[in-house]
Amino acid sequence: MTKQKHTQPKVDRRKSMSEKKAAKMAVTFELKDDGTAVATAKPVDAMGLGPAKLPDDASHPAWASDNPAVTVTEDTTDPSGLTAKVAPASPPSLVTGAHLSITSTVASSGATLSGTSDPIDVVPGAASGFAIAEQ
Questions:
Q1: Model-level pTM?
Q2: Strand 120-122 versus strand 95-98 pairing type
Q3: Neighbours of 7 (CB within 10 A)
Q4: What is the mean pLDDT of each run of 10 residues along the chain (135 residues)?
Q5: How far apart are CA 70 and CA 117, in angstroms?
Q6: For the CA atoms of the chain, what is the radius of gyration?
């Protein structure tokens, strides 16, 4: 009886790990004491590891909110476009589960890099008076 040798295909892990490109972006927040927040995106690879380098031909990132009661505007002091200012709309309204998103397109491949925040809630602050409604 002869023993059969089982072989696995050889994989050059150094090559496969270095070829990974930024595939998405992670979004984090810093809440300021004036009720606004700073959102920061960092490019990550397909496995969520980062920060990864954005391809040189990636478009300038664009920010958006899926709820008009939460505004997001790019922080013009950050030339990378990866930082944005977040605030309740004016006039403010209560919100549950709003999301921010950021996208960038890679010109050479047409791939879209994107990221979505965790849900955002706009909640009332401490009481500062009364609202009176006529019935």
A1: 0.73
A2: antiparallel
A3: 6
A4: 44 37 65 79 85 89 95 94 92 90 94 90 84 89
A5: 13
A6: 22
